[in-house]
Amino acid sequence: MRNKRLLNLLKTIAVLAIVVWSLFPIFFIVVSSFKAGHDIFAVPTKWFFEPTVQHYQKLVSAWPVFFSSLWNSTVITAGATALAVIASTTAGYVYSRYNSRLLNASIVYLIGVRLIPPIVVTLPLFPIVNWLGINDTHFVLIVLYATFFVSLGTVLMRTFIDQIPRELDEAAAIDGASRMTILRKVIVPLATPGIIAVAVFVIVFAWNEFLFAFIFTSTNAKTAPLVVSEMIGSIDGVDWGVLFAASTVQLLPVLLFVVFMNRYLVAGLTAGATKG
Amino acid sequence: MTSQLKLTRRGFLAGTAAVGALSLAGPSFAASKTLNILSHRVHQTSLGEGDADAMKDWKAANDAELNWTTFDSNPLMDRLFREASLSSTDFSVGYMVDNRPTSEIAKLFEPLGPWLEKDGIEEFDDIAPGLVQGMTVDGNLIGIPVRTATQALFYNEARLEEVGISAPPTTIEELVEQARKVTESGKATGMILASDLAVFPVMFARAYGGDFINKDFELLPNKEAMEKGLTTLADMFKDGSLPKSYATTKNDDQVTWMQQGRAAFTVLPFARAAQLNNAEQSKYPGKIKAIGFPGSKDSTVPMASVVEAWAMVIPANAKDKELAWSFIKEVSSKKNTLVMALNGNGPARVSTFGEAELTAKNPLAAVEAEVLAQARGAFPPFPEAARAQALFLEEVQLAVLGRKTPAEAVAAIESRVAPLLPS
């Protein structure tokens, strides 16, 4: 009994330590965005202070490009998510319902592709993207982000679709449904948690991604992480208050989304865990 | 496998179509021409915006819009060189820092000598000759200097007064002594320096008449002076005049420590005076002052501070070189150099430092001009410069932290960096 209590206490401490470790940087950024500039790095730390929105006002006046970049991030994230979800769902369906040596080999290839560091493919792509004339467009990032996640999304969707009884497909087929109709009317509604899980992964990735955006955009499709990185300027110094305000604004939508969709994310992570 | 959330086909397709339509939306420009510029944001803001836009008349006269794409320094250089290496680029003007143009890189950019002969820049000789020299590679001028950042010694006057120091140091020996006095008072750390930049050990070596690599690619031209510089830094670390966190200190820490009064001295470009004294960010507005970094009382060589300069370049593969040159000419004019200086830009023209409007607004202008007259880059550009700097810093840190003697570190710098120098 005593050992059990001790174990529970240790578990609680461990969980608390992980929570503090994970949340403190976010807490620090959000709280600092409401502190006066000279209080942000005050020693000792000022825990009680009069909140101010001056950094948010300055963000609006000095960095209008940040808000247009947020719009770019939104369009690109939405586009990449839609594309990745469609591709992953249809591919996952094929992998789940069909079986051949080629298909089995290709799934290994899909996972292998995911293991390649992005920088390896990024730099050779630069001249190609320029040649195609799609540099600095939303389109290029939508395609790249979706492509990057289709492999993981496909594996994830296959696992979800595997759990949908094949008898439902067969029943629909007997009623005259085509493969596409079965996918749309039987599989997609039942695999919605999987679709949401894939969407969450893509959204979090696309919203925060820096490397591809840095290489392939300049002005028209510049995303928010690029503008935030510019605020950490090495020439004219960092205005920490404005940087933290921008980080908070950028963090908020994806944080709320992940909190809201948390249960689907867990479903995605544990998909197939109890299979068999 | 049930869900409350309904994803209908119609809704899904409508959402996808909407996103597709949005992604096709693009900006439109009223002017007939657009000049695409690749720069740091500071280059754009120093020209002013809105009614204060220094390029307003030029834009009207040329029926052109300026389209600025801005990045931080290193990503900017990376992007500029990648754009210049394509078969063609939309960027007709780029801003390049003076420690980058090696022979290989210079080939990617338009030689500006012929442009200068054809359509000259107003009083070109007024642009500091050392800066012009820095952008001349293999006999070709590839960039027009536009911005300087000269390193200064910043001190917190209030912190010095607290320990009875009424005047800043005039020699490096006095600097060490004053930093020690502040540290011993327990009120602040004597000095804060980033450990990941070569600028600082180079400045300490120069204070004794030495250098890391001089313009003739001579490595450690005065080894004894470099040893003295490293010994001074190591002693400052040992007695606490440099913080215990020295090995992880970054450039931004220098600013925040000075703003908070946690350190009495630091080395930063003159242009940082505004930020260090900004009442919104600093606990010591108006109290953080700057002077030239002092040399040793025993050195016969004048102290040469480190200066970094930026220049405007035209990629050789640019589409509209005429418009690019016209822009460069306009930005380099005396009038606009002053406008940029008033907006915090370190001028590249010598005469600008003497402009009454600037000296009234920036009391450091005269000091900066004096320091700039002797200043030079931390080291000349060469293909292996980044690796050489990394090795140099590795040995400097070992010496400062006491893991190696300064003599051992200097010997290691010599043996490790020498193979990287151009033959």
Automatic annotation (TrEMBL), chain A:
Main location: membrane
Classification via Pfam families: BPD_transp_1
Claim: Heme is one of the keywords in the record: no
Subcellular location: Cell membrane
Membrane-crossing segments per the record: 12-34, 70-95, 107-126, 138-157, 186-207, 240-260
Domain ABC transmembrane type-1: 70-261
Membrane topology listed for this record: Multi-pass membrane protein
GO cellular component: plasma membrane
Keyword vocabulary terms for this entry: Cell membrane, Membrane, Sugar transport, Transmembrane, Transmembrane helix, Transport
Keyword Amino-acid biosynthesis: no
Cited SUPFAM superfamilies: MetI-like (SSF161098)
Single GO biological process annotation from the record: transmembrane transport
Function: Part of the ABC transporter complex MalEFGK involved in maltose/maltodextrin import. Probably responsible for the translocation of the substrate across the membrane.
Name of the protein in question: Maltose/maltodextrin transport system permease protein MalG
Naturally occurring in which organism (per UniProt): Nitratireductor aestuarii
Automatic annotation (TrEMBL), chain B:
Keyword Ribonucleoprotein set for record: no
Organism, scientific name: Nitratireductor aestuarii
Signal peptide span: 1-30
PANTHER family linked to this entry: ARABINOSE-BINDING PROTEIN-RELATED, DIACETYLCHITOBIOSE BINDING PROTEIN DASA
Protein family membership: Belongs to the bacterial solute-binding protein 1 family.
Protein name (database record): Multiple sugar transport system substrate-binding protein
Main location: periplasm
Pfam families: SBP_bac_1 (PF01547)
Keywords: Periplasm, Signal
Subcellular location per the Swiss-Prot or TrEMBL entry: Periplasm
